Structure formats: C-alpha cells, structure tokens
Amino acid sequence: MKLRLTYSTSQWLKSGITLFSLLGLFIPGVTALAESSPQVQATLGSAMLLGQQPATRKTIPNRLPGQVRNAVLQTHARQLRVPINQLRVVSFSQEAWSDTCLGLGRPEEGCGLMMVSGWRVEVGHGPARWFYRTDATGRSLRVEEVDNVGSLPQVVERRVLAFASRELRIPVNQLKIVTGRSQLWNGCLGVAGPNQPCTMIGIPGWQVVVAGQQQYWVYHLNQQGTLIKRNPTTSGRGTLLPSYWQPDASMIETNSGDIIFQSMTSGGIAGEAYKTVLRRDGQVLRIDLRSQPPKIPTLIRKLTPQQVQTFIQTLQQNEFEDFLGFNYIPTVGADYFTIALIAPGSKQGTQYGDIAQDQTPPKLQQIAQAWNRIAMPDQQ
C-alpha cells in the first residue's frame, strides 16, 4: 500500500503555552549541513512508482550547491521541528521545471509558463523521505506532495487492522487503510489524555486512516506498529474520508509574528478568492486576492482582547493542532467554497469544503463555526 509522507506536526497548542508565545518559536536559527549522497536512480524510481514523468533532466551533477542544500534543510527542519543535524540529503538531481510553480501548481494558481532550471532534492529523517523542488538558487522551493511516497510494511498494516478490529469489534475484512503519512511523535504518540505529561522525544512512526462503513478512524503508531493509539479528535463519521494537504508557501502570511490565525477562501460561482487575517491587536482584515497585486486590506471588525483570548481557547480546547495537514474536500459537487484554516506560526493548516463542513469531525466543526463568526463582516 502506498502512503503519502508529509510534514510532522507536533503539538504546538497542547503544550499549555498560549498561541501568542508559540508564534515566536517557529523560526529557529539553523546551521547548514554539509553532506551529500547522489543516489539519482533512487530518486527516479520514486517518481516512477506513481507513473509520474520526471522533469527534463539536464545533467547528473557531482555537487549540490550549498545555498540550495541549506534552503531545503533549513525549511524542512522548521517544518519537522527537529535539529538540522538530524536531516540528510539522500539524493539530488538537476532538473528543468515547466513553469514558475516548479510543476507543482494547483488549479487555482497562476503559474508562469516558462522553463525554470533547478534541483530535485531527497531529504531523509530516519527512514522517512521527502522530495523538494527548487529553482537554481533555492529561493523558490516546494515539497512534492504527490511523490512523497513510502511503503507501509505489510506486517505493520496487518497490525493496525487487527488492532482496529479488536478495538472497534468490527471484522477485519470490513476495514481498510485508505491513506497515511509518516510522522514524528512525542512520547504519547500525539494522543494524550487530560493533564497527561508527554515526553518531548521524537518517535518515528505513522498516522493512518482506517475506514469502515460510514465511519473512519485515525490511528497513530510507531514505526513497527507495536504501539498503536486511536485519535478520537480526528476520527469521524460519514462517507467523506480525509486526505492530506500542505498549504502552499504563498498562502502563509510572511509577517506571522503579528498574526494569530488566518483563512483562505476560494471558489463559488463568482470565483472569489480572499484571505481573512486575525491580528494580535484584534483587527480582522480581509484581502481580496483576485487582483495582482492584492488590494489594500479591509478592516471588517475589531475584537476585544477577551474575544481574542476566547478564540485561542477555542483552538486549544478543540485541539486544532490535531487537524493540521488534513483535507476534507468533497469529490463531487460544484460551486462550493474551499476554506483553508491556517496557523501561520506552524505553516500548517487544514482545508475543507463549505458544503461538507457538517461532515468534518465535531471539534473541527466547532473551530470552523467560531472562525466563521469572526470572519463575517460587521453589518453596518
């Protein structure tokens, strides 16, 4: 079974520290790692697993430029929240991408059609692998969500399904693993009870979604599948099964120190696209993204300090950090709005379709409802 590997999302709200203080912790200084291992055949084989055509190959270089290596490792260290010396470049190849989005643009993006010379870099952390695309300098950089593929060992798959079958009292032949990703867990495997202390150690493992009839369950496990926990927060009911998602760098507010929360809304009959931002001072701003450059932000409301704190508590109580990286977009239907809820400090978020909001897990519904009340402009 092929499973998608994405960024690890550690528990940035469960720690008991308020979101205000945490926002300043997500831009650690890191140092460069000087190491290379050009295993180009492994990189090509990974792309071919999905039948994806690799970009036009120019040469097989002997050395990856230091600025590109630094950019990739520093970005991944921030996302994974691990020391940079725990990461390594497994392989790299010189490529020519077909557009300014490095061949990874989404349908709603405007990608310039031009050849961009750059690099494809495979990063390793333990047994997990991620693939990055960059331009020639490393200033433009994207993670390959599609090609971040690894194999869940069959013995681990069997252990997860057997565990779920026993716990849920459902025959194992009525269960299936529909998606998954590699994760780096704390001592509680990312699932802690009230006031339960968790050692802040990195346990490599997996997060998998097991589906039954009209219901799904999210399990956290270590690499061997000998330790397994169900996450009740992200498990849910219905036929809409979650997938995984990573916000594009363009969706993240660069001045994140002043930002508490933000959302990106797009779609609808009129093709709307706008960003809504909650600032630390309580200002709620809306930016229309349909014009380039975007129009000047519009102030749509001003929250009191108590209202801001209440919203932060809503995020904490409903465990928003557990939903980071999840995607709840219906596969059928049209003219709906896609809403991405993003925590700027962690550069992670969750995405859902407005017509499917009631099919997301209950705690995510609570968060979405609280944010909708904030993001709705005041009626004059």
Task: Please tell me about this protein's structure.
There is one protein chain. The chain has 380 residues and is an alpha+beta fold. The chain has 3 domains: 31-150, no CATH class; 152-243; 245-375, 2-Layer Sandwich (Mago nashi protein). The chain contains 6 helices and 19 strands. It has helices at 19-23, 40-48, 66-80, 154-168, 305-317, 362-375; strands at 2-4, 56-57, 88-97, 116-125, 128-135, 141-143, 149-151, 176-185, 203-211, 215-222, 228-237, 243-244, 259-267, 272-279, 283-288, 298-302, 326-328, 337-343, 348-353. Strands 12-17-19-18-13-14-15-16 form an 8-stranded mixed sheet. It has a 5-stranded antiparallel sheet with strand order 2-3-4-5-6. A hairpin with a 3-residue loop joins strand 9 (203-211) and strand 10 (215-222). The radius of gyration is 21 Å and the shape is globular. The N and C termini lie far apart (54 Å). The model is unreliable at 2-59 and 146-150 (pLDDT under 50).
Please describe the structure with a list of short key phrases separated by commas or semicolons:
single chain, 380 residues, alpha+beta, Mago nashi protein, 3 domains, eight-stranded mixed beta sheet, five-stranded antiparallel beta sheet, 6 helices, 19 strands, 19% helix, disordered N terminus
- How would you characterize the largest beta sheet? 8 strands, mixed
Class derived from helix and strand content: alpha+beta
Number of domains: 3
The value of Rg in angstroms is 21 Å
Number of helices: 6
- The portion of residues forming beta strands comes to 25-35%
CATH fold group of the largest domain: Mago nashi protein
* Order of H and E elements: EHHEHEEEEEHEEEEEEEEEHEEEH
N- to C-terminal distance: 54 Å
Pick out the low-confidence regions.
2-59, 146-150
State the CATH class of the largest domain.
Alpha Beta
